Predict the 3D structure of the following.
Amino acid sequence: MTELDRAEARAALARLHMAKTLTALQTRLDPRNVAREAVDGLADTGTRVLDAGIGAAKRHPGKIAGGVALLAAFLGRHHIAKLIGKARSAKSSGKNPLKAERKKL
């Protein structure tokens, strides 16, 4: 085998290796495969975040209850303000606002 034959054999082997690498890259970069990997990654991340949140809630139930109470107060702020306004106006007129409110319900 001459030097030229050995060089041609090495070149053929390098081309074969490059073709295999190119095929692997094309398979990996296929949009369906990229999307599937992204979804799998998001699912794994979501699971980890959920587990961490549950663990934190178990360790700090008082903080979670306080947060829920704050959220409820924030969401019901208009209704609460309306009740406070009615209580103030009823107080100035001498009526009991809670009895008046119950009758409406």
Residues 61-105 form one domain. The mean pLDDT is 88.
